[in-house]
C-alpha cells in the first residue's frame, strides 16, 4: 500500500509541476490552481506514505522519479533538448534511487 500512495504522490507532484509550467508565473488562473492542488495532494499522499515507509527511501523515490519524469515530459512534450548530459543525469538519478532502495533503508 505505501508504494501505491507514493506513486500517486509522484503523479500529483508531476501534474502540479507541469501545470506550473503553463501558469505563466502564476498569472493564469487554472494552471495556477492545478499547481496548488497538485502539490497539496502530493504532500498529503507523501505524508501518508511516511507512516509506513522510511523517510529516506520515500523521499529518494519521490524526488528521483518526479525529477526524471518532469525532465522526460519536458523533452517529449515541451520542446526541451534531449542532450546526452540530460539523459545521463536522468540515468544517474534512477541509479541513485535504486541504490538507496538496495541499501536496505526501509
Question: What would a concise description of this structure say?
Answer:
The protein has 106 residues and is an all-alpha fold.
Secondary-structure element string: HHHH
The stretches of 5 or more residues where confidence is low (pLDDT under 50) are: none
Strand percent estimate: under 5%
Number of beta strands: 0
Question: What is the radius of gyration?
Answer: 15 Å
The structure class reads mainly alpha
Shape: flat
Summarize the biggest pleated sheet. none
Ends distance: 14 Å
* Percent of residues in helices: over 70%
Number of DSSP helices?
Answer: 4
Description:
With about 110 residues, the chain is mainly α. The protein has one domain (about 1-100). It has 4 helices and no strands. The longest helix is centred in the middle third of the chain and has 23 residues, at about 55-75. The two termini are about 15 Å apart.
Give the key terms.
4 helices; flat; 106 residues; mainly alpha
Topology of this structure?
Layout: H1 2-22, H2 29-49, H3 55-77, H4 84-102
Helix pairs in contact: 1-2, 1-3, 3-4
Amino acid at each position: 500500500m505505501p508504494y501505491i500512495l507514493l506513486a500517486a504522490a509522484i503523479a500529483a507532484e508531476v501534474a502540479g509541476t507541469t501545470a506550473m509550467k503553463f501558469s505563466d508565473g502564476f498569472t493564469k488562473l487554472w494552471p495556477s490552481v492545478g499547481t496548488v492542488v497538485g502539490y497539496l495532494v502530493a504532500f498529503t499522499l507523501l505524508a501518508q506514505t511516511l507512516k509506513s515507509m522510511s523517510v529516506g527511501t520515500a523521499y529518494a523515490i519521490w524526488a528521483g522519479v518526479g525529477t526524471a519524469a518532469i525532465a522526460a515530459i519536458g523533452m517529449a512534450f515541451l520542446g526541451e533538448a534531449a542532450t546526452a548530459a540530460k539523459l545521463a543525469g536522468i540515468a544517474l538519478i534512477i541509479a541513485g534511487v535504486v541504490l538507496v532502495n538496495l541499501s536496505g533503508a526501509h
